[in-house]
Write a structure and sequence with these properties.
This is HTH marR-type domain-containing protein. The protein is mostly helical and 156 residues long. The chain contains 6 helices and 3 strands.
């Protein structure tokens, strides 16, 4: 016996469609602003900001890939391009000869420090400042609930 689909109510459909449009429009706007203001792509900024927030501005490649929800192959290719631009460098892992560590260079840190203020202002202008404190709390709570469910072991 096949179970009937649980169709969305009008309210649920409205929320889903609004989220999808917001996700696409907001990400596109933030990416345009980031590129115009700092000549960085979203993936560049993601790598730089993750390294900038890491102890000693370094992280194992495998850990960085996991944090960013990227495949190791995708990250490796992106790191090669960033390394050519002098933003990051790779080192051998002292505790595991098969592993590698990616390190934020001085140029990478300066690039991140220059890009962060206008990027945060863009996030504020296009998202945070449009919402009330209550909406921000509700949004954060909803997003954290979904993330917790999707990151549970065994979730497909």
């Amino acid at each position: 016996m096949t179970r009937e689909p649980r169709w969305l109510t009008d309210s649920e459909q409205r929320a889903w469609e609004a989220y999808r449009r917001m996700f696409l429009l907001l990400n596109a706007q933030l990416a345009r602003d980031l590129n115009r203001q700092s000549a960085l792509s979203e993936p560049d900024y993601d790598v730089l900001s993750n390294l900038g927030a890491s102890p000693d501005h370094r992280r194992r490649v495998s850990e960085l890939a996991d944090r960013m929800l990227w495949s190791r192959s995708r990250l490796s290719h992106h790191l090669s391009r960033m390394q050519q631009r002098g933003l990051v460098m790779r080192e051998e892992c002292a505790t595991d000869g098969r592993g590698a560590v990616v390190v934020l260079t001085d140029d990478g840190l300066r690039t991140l420090e220059a890009a962060a203020p206008p990027h945060v202002e863009s996030v504020r202008r296009h998202f945070i400042d449009l919402l009330t404190p209550e909406q921000i709390e509700a949004f954060a709570g909803a997003a954290e609930t979904v993330v917790a469910r999707l990151t549970e072991p065994g979730t497909d």
